[in-house]
Amino acid sequence: xxxxxxxxxxxxxxxxxxxxxxxxxxxxxxxxxxxxxxxxxxxxxxxxxxxxxxxxxxxxxxxxxxxxxxxxxxxxxxxxxxxxxxxxxxxxxxxxxxxxxxxxxxxxxxxxxxxxxxxxxxxxxxxxxxxxxxxxxxxxxxxxxxxxxxxxxxxxxxxxxxxxxxxxxxxxxxxxxxxxxxxxxxxxxxxxxxxxxxxxxxxxxxxxxxxxxxxxxxxxxxxxxxxxxxxxxxxxxxxxxxxxxxxxxxxxxxxxxxxxxxxxxxxxxxxxxxxxxxxxxxxxxxxxxxxxxxxxxxxxxxxxxxxxxxxxxxxxxxxxxxxxxxxxxxxxxxxxxxxxxxxxxxxxxxxxxxxxxxxxxxxxxxxxxxxxxxxxxxxxxxxxxxxxxxxxxxxxxxxxxxxxxxxxxxxxxxxxxxxxxxxxxxxxxxxxxxxxxxxxxxxx
Amino acid sequence: xxxxxxxxxxxxxxxxxxxxxxxxxxxxxxxxxxxxxxxxxxxxxxxxxxxxxxxxxxxxxxxxxxxxxxxxxxxxxxxxxxxxxxxxxxxxxxxxxxxxxxxxxxxxxxxxxxxxxxxxxxxxxxxxxxxxxxxxxxxxxxxxxxxxxxxxxxxxxxxxxxxxxxxxxxxxxxxxxxxxxxxxxxxxxxxxxxxxxxxxxxxxxxxxxxxxxxxxxxxxxxxxxxxxxxxxxxxxxxxxxxxxxxxxxxxxxxxxxxxxxxxxxxxxxxxxxxxxxxxxxxxxxxxxxxxxxxxxxxxxxxxxxxxxxxxxxxxxxxxxxxxxxxxxxxxxxxxxxxxxxxxxxxxxxxxxxxxxxxxxxxxxxxxxxxxxxxxxxxxxxxxxxxxxxxxxxxxxxxxxxxxxxxxxxxxxxxxxxxxxxxxxxxxxxxxxxxxxxxxxxxxx
Lengths: 444, 444
Fold this sequence. Notes:
Two copies of one chain form a homodimer. By secondary structure, chain A is of the alpha/beta class. The first copy, chain A, is 31% helix and 26% strand.
């Protein structure tokens, strides 16, 4: 039952990650009243979240307050709130505490969360990395593991404290494992008296046959080599079957060679899977819209929902396809550039609907992939009209560095990150090694 | 029952605030095995903690990892741990989890915590500012108060969200109130659509007859004037008698004019009192040593304990006196320079005891006092051999700024703070406005 509403059409955007941010920006000149709501007060530059998790950057360096970003866009109202339901019949968004938000157009960009493949009991033992709180928790565990090892008299327990396991060989896992090795081998030596941090073991467990599976095979191989050079033990064909407070059980190898291995570790990091936000599942069930295995909503070519052209779903919440003329539709990956492009496309289609013209199918332009491994090491896979470039090593790392700084939002953030990294590079130090309290966690 | 111990004398230092840090540093060349234990992993520059609480600086800018600071001092072992007891008969320190720490010399520098004058039930409603966790909590409440006001339909509740109360007119309270006014009047306007942040009320409640009571009267008066110019309502002779989740009850005025005033506020900050750490109380009770009203241990002139010359107590935990030739002993204030000087004095006396020579009484050199009020405003009271200088306003603020940056530990920290403040000054922005999650606190 749509309410009669005079005045500008109301657009509600749920989520201010890359998708929601670009949607709102692309509507800067629209004759619309836009409400942008997020359950945090900041836009997070997720590609650098692993730096906060490894104490290399402080949180404000990669997080910008949303209402500050949109202060000059008069048609945007920013609200801090958690969306608990979407009433698609009455066309309003329901917040946990706050006013109802009626809409003529809705963009749902609530993102993804961790997936433990049905084993949510693993979550307390193996935190993932999606939000700032996740990053703080991982940072706390990493720093406290070395502290606990320094105090530990029992050699077996000490080894468990100095064994770090990263689960998942995608970009996040590779970055975390490489950076952990940097911390152990370059940052901390000399600061402890009873342990040698450089003796820490860092294991990267990947269930498939290579790391960075979305990249060309030769780059996967280079990444593995660079990880091993840094001292990371890369274990392929290794599927985790159990995690508790002190151990990880792994089924390693394939076929007849498969065997179960137990690793004693008190610091396990999950980088193996994400699933769509529960809000997506709720929306899909309400509307009877299909979801894929990861809980992402299967959207129409123009990113809207079947029978609900006024609702678009974008970013990690959407199972979207890319439509290029003369080619088969391609699945769109859950990466930041795709979320940004979907945001712009959703905004363009909203403008078309407002004008009464036909919407257009989404077309994803894949410019390639980057992943860093550690100091001086990265792999870059670039796709451009003039050719396909693949490179790795030091130059790739510089490219990766500048690309990430370029895409950071906010001039000050760029300067801060540049300074922090420049001095960290020269001094091998990490800037943000603050743990505010020991906490009551399972560690101690 | 002292254990027979061959080898270097063991010195245990509890706490790595200003007192503990200076003790350890002053023993750099001692033939001793020093263990420095703190329940956090960092040394905190407390004078700038209010900047983290008001989202002006990130935590790493004012906190340095202890083991990094002492990495090159070979006779220091750093441990992260919480001291739960001191066995003064057996001469060892007991940690919550970790090895026992035997000592020949012990320095207790565990610092202070908040005092609510017996009303600990006020603590959840009025957080104080002593640790990084305190700063994060206060920052969260300040930022969320404006967010909640933006969503609030009821005007009375909205006013309560936009009413901030700071309790206590010492330097911390004055700095918090002045900075809150800056945030409301300079930082946030333009970023909200439903509220006008500049209309927020900021009240500073002081029980006595002037703010900054440790400073000369004319400087107190200037500070009040500068606060009022910033839009802070300074209420003198105002004693808090009750605090709950939504109100503060104040007994205002003296004698026949006294009346009770109720203020509706959902963001109250406590800056009215500190008390010695519980470890101090425990130590005093064990040894039958007197404490003053704030729970600080009454120490000997050389900062040691009666009948236990091997134990020194320094910093905010100690009720110490300053002995200058030809003058009456003076009480030593609980300020950072005093803690640093006591640290150096305790170290010097440990070296004397090790050499078998007589210890010396502590002499505090009071160089004066600084407090800032906000942009361009501070009061400075300097005591030097060449004279007594008092000034306020813009030049005092510059002096305050550079003095604080000078005393920050770590070159990188100084650069970071300088850059953050320079750009904040020019842009009127605050850098660290990150709230990682809405939380389950009493606000929402």
